[in-house]
Design brief:
This protein has 406 residues and is α/β, with parallel strands linked by helices. The chain has a domain of 187 residues: FAD/NAD(P)-binding domain, CATH 3.50.50. The chain contains 14 helices and 17 strands. It has a seven-stranded mixed β-sheet with strand order 5-4-13-14-15-12-16, with helices on both faces. It has a five-stranded parallel β-sheet with strand order 7-2-1-11-17, sandwiched between helices. α10 runs antiparallel to α11. The protein is globular and about 65 Å long.
Amino acid sequence: MTQARQKANKPHVIIAGAGMGGLTLAISLLRKGCDVDIYEQSPELREVGAGLWISANGSRVMADLGLKEALQAINLPPEDRVIRFWKTGEEHSVYNRDTNDSKADHTLIQVLRGELQRMLYEAVIKLKPNAVHFGARSFGAETIGDRARLLFDDETFAEGDVVVGCDGAHSRVRQSQFGPAPARYTGAVAWRGLAPMSSLKPQHKRALASTWVGPTAHVTCYPVQRNGEQFVSFSAQVDSEVWQTESWSERGELADALKDFEGWNQDILDLFINSENLFRWGLFVRDPLERWSKGRVTLVGDACHSMTPYLGMGVNVTMEDAYVLARCLEDQPDDIEKALERYDKARIERTNLTKARSMEMLKIFHDPALERIETARPYIEKNWAPDVVRQRYDWLLAYDATTVEV
């Protein structure tokens, strides 16, 4: 087959959603010579005041896409990762980054979600300036013969060789292929916020990734930056019989946050008090899917495996999905459905296991032993011992989407 014929056979991919999965997939495909169009329901990229961790399995994908330097430019790396007691802040180091005992790289990259999305978007439009189409609300997808269509609310559609739903936990593409996926409340409510470092006490300026643990709640916080200004990003989960909406952009009230964390160390309360905005939502889970692909339509990221945040893996496994899918489509452009079958086989078992292990962490973060320091110390030392942390994370971090067999 000639080089021109090979290029002509490369698929045109229609992507629903310009989040982390959709943009990473677009970069991966464009770099392989495929054509891509992304349809995003928002009228523009919107700033989201939330931080996230990119671990070795995610940063490996970014590096292979030529984005290592751009990622480091928005990173604010921690010097240590610690578990802290909810009342006093007493800390226990769990960072394996600089040790030789671990079989995987435990380095954390800490960024603002909005900054990461901007970085990925700029990489996409550098490769194809008109790749992203804003204000296009999709309601599903369908396979028509040897073509796939992304359907829009205004009764129009975009057609290509394959459609990929990167449209999040409430994915309309997923619903159109596999029907409703009922959400089950986990019994925990999440808070998130972003507090300017300039408004906080000196101890907040330490370069730490901290998880404060208590009997019925925990808080993860770490420094991030935006245009040279530093913030502390925090995500707090608390047991609650009363559930909230699943939307993570739902505003919350400071009085409710302070009530949920009554008795906690003032350093945690200061984060809530000084946050630019507070958001509160219920944490839900859905049953894992047995398949992600149907005909010429498939799914990536939260659309097919939304998970709790307790392992910090959501964005990382989404980046893995995107890269592996691009590899499958490149390898088998003449048989899209077979390529999608290979993608399912390569990804579903890993992501479903990650999803389950993440949920299991809730009962570790919240335990009656954490009520008093006398029982908390041995509990923390047991559950965050170096060998336990390695067992918990090494299998996740060692995964390489750029070389794994597909």
